[in-house]
Amino acid sequence: MSEERFAKTPEPPYYAVIFTFQRNECEAGFAEKVELMTRLAKEQPGYIGTESAGDASGFGILVSYWTDLASIAKWRTETSHAQAQTEGKSNWFEGLELRISKVERAYNFRK
């Protein structure tokens, strides 16, 4: 089991931004944009970590963890991220859902 697949989160409370999406067939520029957004998110105050999963049909879930709502709001409006949101809707996504939740309890298990 790879520990890097699990975000290293602090003791609650903290926040989860749950981004669920269906990709289309377009690949042009997507991987590069994901790499850039991942790097920029890690530089943002309040960023904790990310976990993601997807399937061959292009359905995916990305959960990013944040210390507070103000940090999430700031990331949402960061210039490069705002541009990426617009590009994603135009170029790569058939549909998406975004949900923000407060994590009040967290449990884990590792062998």
Task: Describe the fold and architecture.
It is a single chain. The protein is an alpha+beta fold and 111 residues long. The protein has one domain (11-103): Alpha-Beta Plaits (2-Layer Sandwich), CATH 3.30.70.100. It is 32% helix and 33% strand. It contains three helices and four strands, in the order βαββααβ. It has a four-stranded antiparallel beta sheet. The N and C termini lie close together (8 Å). The model has no long low-confidence stretch (mean pLDDT 94).
Task: Please give the structural blueprint.
Blueprint lengths: L13 E10 L6 H13 L4 E8 L4 E8 L2 H9 L1 H14 E11 L8
Antiparallel strand pairs: 1-3, 1-4, 2-3
Order of helices and strands: EHEEHHE
Can you tell me the CATH architecture? Answer: 2-Layer Sandwich
Rg value = 14 Å
Query: How many domain units?
Result: 1
Strand percentage lies at 25-35%
Strand order of the largest sheet: 2-3-1-4
Number of helices: 3
Mean pLDDT: 94
The major sheet is characterized as: 4 strands, antiparallel
Q: Quick one: CATH class?
A: Alpha Beta
DSSP strand count = 4
